[in-house]
Amino acid sequence: MSTVATDRGALVAEERRAFAERNPESRRLHEEARRFLPGGHTRTILAHEPFPLTFVRGEGAVLTDADGHDYLDLLGDYTAGLFGHGERRVLDAVDGAMRELAAVGGLHPHEAELARLMCERFGLDRVRFTNSGTEANLFAITAARMLTGRERVLVFEGGYHGAHEHVAVSVRPPANRLDPKGPSAIPEYPGQPGKHP
Fold it and tell me: Of these four, 17, 82, 109, 162, which has the most CB atoms within 10 Å of its CB?
């Protein structure tokens, strides 16, 4: 092993140690969460070594973790938090909607109204609402395969494309498995099929 690789490994180990020392409450909460959630989280994209931070508060573009550290939120929950945290207009709209009708196993006029607004704004014929990006991705891949007759799906090595077996490939490939000649399909989860479309 080269000196550079050894030094890099030592630096990473030291940074992980310092991170853990600086965030004992996030570590405690993560260990508690692992008792009830696989991996201690609800989405694999949140899994980080040595453990993910636990955030307890947000206001505007600032997040506060369980250890009292403030962070500028440049992620915005992968665009779902585009308006920031605690945005009054969003809170008021959610409060009004919840008071009117929280959830039913049927249609609501606001669904069609939102779909109309989106179609007009983005020049679309129709839209399909989904519960998550992963679900939207599954629908898109199914439609693309059906319409094109093709089986293969392109994903970017090191990129997150959803949490299902067709695209959860080479999301965080270990450095020792990277091939300089081209990408390698490395399953993200144990039990995934070895061959990927």
Answer: 162
Q: What is the mean pLDDT of residues 13-37?
A: 96
DSSP per-residue codes, the chain: --HHHHHHHHHHHHHHHHHHHH-HHHHHHHHHHTTTSGGGSSSGGG--SS----EEEEEBTEEEETTS-EEE--STTTTTTTT-BS-HHHHHHHHHHHHH----SS--HHHHHHHHHHHHHHT-S-----SSHHHHHHHHHHHHHHHH--------TT----SSTTT-BSSS--GGG--TTS----BSSTT--SS--
Instruction: List the chain domain ranges.
Output: 3-53, 131-197
Inter-CA distances, 140 with 77, 99, 103, 121, 178, Å: 21, 33, 26, 20, 28
- Give the gyration radius of the chain's Cα atoms: 21
- Tell me how far apart the terminal alpha carbons of the chain are, to the nearest angstrom: 35
Residue pair 73/61 in contact (Cβ under 8 Å)? The answer is: yes
Highest mean pLDDT among 72-81, 106-115, 175-184: 106-115
* Residue 124: predicted pLDDT: 96
